[in-house]
Here is the input.
Amino acid sequence: MANKTALSQGIIRCHDCGKLTLKTQENTACTRCGKQLHARLPQSFQRTLALLISSYALYLPANLFPIMTFTRFGIGEPHTIIGGIISLIHSDMLPIALLVLVASILVPLLKLIGLSLLLLCVHYRWQVNATHWTKTYRIIALVGRWSMLDIFMISILVSLVNLGGVAQVIAGTASTAFAAVVILTMFAAKSFDPRLIWDVQDENAQVFSNKSL
Here is the structure.
């Protein structure tokens, strides 16, 4: 009895207000807020996969195309994210360069890889430590928004450094792609239901138990 899950006993948590309800029919609604009850987020895997594929498709142009062009007296050179980091290093701004590297390169990439591993775990029903993978999901959901650092910096520079022919900052095409990657990965993390990881482990445990018998 102690190993039974809430789902196996027909207990469902409302995604809006958090109330636990004993679901008896397919169309049962939450008695507190009236929201339609679902055992798991509907189409969670499919939605997360679609958003993740879109993020991968935009990640390359976000890093290959110029994200910002700084012109001075009509002369300027477009910079990619990597180019901007190198420029900061050459300008003796190593701490800022490291901050941009982590927030704009490492965090989005690790978030993409992390979400991919979560989907692979659910799809291929890997036997994993569900507690550790759930903590990984929470970290991914928490830190993803900080990747907008580059976009915030560019938007501030565009508004502040606008001196006509003297100096000007122009946002590049990569800025749109990069912002889209950050937003899509945030939506992907939000649409993924981490309880799917636990469902897989419960199913694996049940299969192992049946084989042992």
